[in-house]
Amino acid sequence: MAEARETRSASVGISGVSDGTGFSLLKRMPLALLAGAVFPLGLSPYEVWPCILISVAGLFWLIQGTERRNMILIHYAFGTGFYGVGVSWVYFSIHDFGGASPLLAGLLVLLFVLALALVFALQGWLLSFLGRRWLWLSFACLWFAREWFVSWFLTGFPWLYAGYGMIDTWYAALAPLTGVLMLGFIVVVLAVQIVLMLQAAWLRSVPGLVLPLVLIGTVTAMSFGLQFYSPVSDTGRVLTVSLVQGNVDQATKWSRAMVRPILNRYLGLSETEWGRDLIVWPEAAVTVFREQAGGFLGPVGERATAAGSALLLGIPDRDAEGHFLNSATVAGNGSGTYHKRRLVPFGEYVPLESLLRGVIQFFDLPMSHNVAGPAGQAPLFVGELPLSLSICYEVVYPDLVRATVADPALFVTISNDTWFGTSIGPWQHLQMARMRALENGRYMVRATNNGVTAVIDDRGRIQAQLPQFEPGVLRGEVRVMEGTTLYNRTGQLPWLILIAGMILLIGYRGRARQDRR
User: Fold this and answer.
1) Among 516, 502, 509, 495, which residue's Cα sits nearest to residue 174?
2) Which active-site residues does the annotation give?
3) Residues sharing a CB contact under 8 Å with residue 498, sequence separation 6 or more, in sequence order
4) Quick one: 96 and 117 in the same domain?
């Protein structure tokens, strides 16, 4: 028995480092692919949140004891499974609305996934330089660094963050303090500590159990305690809201012949809503440019004013140079116009336009000639209350939403998720909107063309929602909150400094150990 235990000790140390004997790269690669594919099952709409812990733990276990090249390849395989399942909705956009054949759409999605997975290969490459002594901490720090990197590189694709899967757990209570990125770091720490705890138990190493049990117990206890604390408070003021879901067919939406029928549909759905504090129509509900819609905006604004309502609606606009803008404006008992600042690649602009424009229909979609709106725009108002608006894709950028308006009464997001079809995309999008409400301690209302339209409270909980793919109106009440969360005040910067400092310290100590040898 003692001899067997010594053999196991040689294979797997208390630090969690295995020499990988008898476990080849050919076995690790498909397991890494599977581990990556499990990760999105922890996110909406599946919401089996332990899958995130299992997925991350699986990757950490697979990289232990591997050579530098193998660490990169294992991370890349994980990333391929991660994005292959997590962004499968891209196929619907390319095939159903981009006019690509199933074969071409599948090929383009594969290329997209393989390109995205390179960021995991980069994570593995960097990890291979940081040494083995603090592998678990290096792994968690670089996970955070990767999630931060993809939030801005090439305009950013901040999708599938680990923290989103915690939105309905005790750990969500940390988000107003940390934001979603640092929450993800904590989740990754928990996952790797579970691996180290199981390895220590296998070796019957009591010292090896101490750190995992302390960290897991402390984080869980803190998260439970924060359930009973809120950094924001209710002012007692309530706004009545009506969110209008038109369910307009994307295939005919931009046809000139459909302009009046679409307006009539939204007016008909809104007929019984005049008198509500805020009525919201979704992104691009009006399908002509703002300067062409004066004959509509004037009368509908007068009607809203007479009823004491503010009508917020999505409408395309043009700047002084004639560039297209994805915009929203408030009519009636409110004011302001907002121009979208973060655009969707291919949907609103075409990267490498001179090469790609017109190659296939997907690279020449309607309204894909937009430019970004300016920074520092004035807030929108409902009565005297400021709103923070994000249009579609913008809501997935934590710091953009946080910093758009100082101390807003509520958050509003409008979207057209028709591009996602019947895929998992709209549910992932909704989950990210929920996290923005939680991070900032404000209610959020979300009006979409065909779902998922919802009212979300200041703790990220869905208060009401409409079914997808049906026209309708969602009525709700929004409580105006006051105060700010720690994350709302500081954003990611303190955590970025902390993580960067830990990476530098680990790298320095690892280099010093090598020099002493």
Assistant:
1) 495
2) 283, 340, 392
3) none
4) yes
